[in-house]
Amino acid sequence: MNIIASTTRKPGLIGLSRPELMTALALVDVPERQRRMRAQQIWHWLYHRGVTSFADMTNVSKALRQRLEETFDISRPEVAARQISVDGTRKWLLRLPPDDTGARHEVEVVYIPEEDRGTLCISSQVGCTLNCTFCHTGTQRLVRNLTAGEIVSQVLVAKDDLGDWPDRIAQDPDAPASGRWITNVVLMGMGEPLYNFDNVREAVAIISDGEGISLSRRRITLSTAGVAPLIPKAGAEMDVMLAISLHATTDEVRDRLVPLNRKYPIAEVLEACRNYPGLSNARRITFEYVMLKGINDSVADAKRLVGLLKGIPAKVNLIPFNPWPGSPYECSDWETIERFAEVVNRAGYASPVRSPRGRDIMAACGQLKSASEKRRASERRQQA
Ligand code: SAH
After folding, report:
1. What is the DSSP letter of 294?
2. Which of 106, 108, 192, 288 is flagged as catalytic?
């Protein structure tokens, strides 16, 4: 059944660049001189207005709408589950359409409302290859990279559910003064974004496009575990804000927490950071540091951290460890976290402690994990 669905699925338009969209229009016989204009119209409907059906694209001729409908897909991935935390954090589990093998993978997306902003945390891969020992996603085998369309679709689904489209904002008495529910996007969900570089770059281009979703690149943050050679390239080609999951101040400890450190040790990652284009005091790199009791949370660590960051416009985000079933670590005590923050702060670096959000629905940092793997195993059993 899934196999049939996958072979008969129409190609999607979500996630195509403008030139790709124009090429797609050639397939439905839009004359060359009209393609730019038509692509512009469709882009506006998809990313500014958020329509999910060609029938709603009222400035496109009926005949063309019909052909588009027959040929292309602009539907959203299915929302398999939706949870809302006591603190207002929302989490969606998206079930992707069947891939070539007929498997339907799942990814999680999280919305974190705050006083002055609303942050959407999106995923770049199904699962992850990095196996960081404190991260729940790391216990899930990598299933695959997400396509640009699948990355952008996470934003679209969240906008649908939040009512974050102009028509709905205009009618929403509770809408924030900024005129949008999603003000920031962080690539901090499942996966390592720099290991899915091209698709992430295409998705960022669409999310930041001024005629669509229109989120400034200054409000998009890419978080990496430290794929050193790709860090300057990310700055040059994506121009987003950068976050580094540092988490330790010696290679010995970081090797254990973030196994990627054996390939790209601390000094190499920090050197790449120094070469990140556009760095300034107004544009700092965020260093994420998970607080693990007795592992990386001493005053000596805090002092070493300050030494490592010397010369890099930086701020430090301290993340209390979020536990998950069977996790091998504990969160540092509150006084320990405060002492650590104090040392970093006195050295001149902002060092906010990230308040855990959505822990009750397993939506906090490092708690995301989809059932893709399990589901596949059970599917295999069923077939056998
Ligand atoms: N692969 C990228 C994107 C994931 S971002 C990266 O490593 O940066 C998710 C952030 O949450 C990372 O900083 C990650 O190290 C952190 N994290 C993972 N597990 C966590 C946990 N259990 N508690 C707190 N933070 C965690």
Report:
1. T
2. 108
**42: left (phi > 0), else alpha (psi -120 to 50), else beta?**
alpha
Beta bridge partners of 92: 82, 109
Residue 126, beta-bridge partner list: 144
372 has a pLDDT exceeding 70: no
Asked if the 78-383 domain carries CATH number 3.40.50.10540, the reply is no
Distances (CA, A) of 306 to 77, 284, 335, 341, 373: 44, 15, 19, 11, 40
pLDDT at residue 342, rounded to an integer: 98
CA of 245 to the centre of ligand 1 (A): 7
Tell me, yes or no, if 365 is annotated catalytic: yes
Distance CA 331, CA 323 (A): 8
72 alpha carbon – ligand 1 mean position (Å): 36
CA of 172 to the centre of ligand 1 (A): 34
Taking only the tens place, the pLDDT of each residue in 138-189 is 777 777 999 999 999 999 999 999 999 999 999 999 999 899 999 999 999 9
Q: Which range (4-8, 158-162, 262-266) has the least confidence?
A: 4-8
Proportion of the chain above pLDDT 90, given as a percent: 83
Q: What angle do CA 288, 308, 345 make, to 5 degrees?
A: 60
| Residue 365 pLDDT | 81
**What residue segments make up the domains of the chain, in order of their start?**
18-71, 78-383
Which is it for strands 285-291 and 241-245: parallel, antiparallel or unpaired? parallel
| pLDDT given for residue 374 in this prediction | 44
Topology of the domain comprising 18-71: DNA polymerase; domain 1 (1.10.150)
Give the active site residue among 106, 202, 365, 373. 365
Query: What is the arithmetic mean of pLDDT over 284-303?
Result: 98
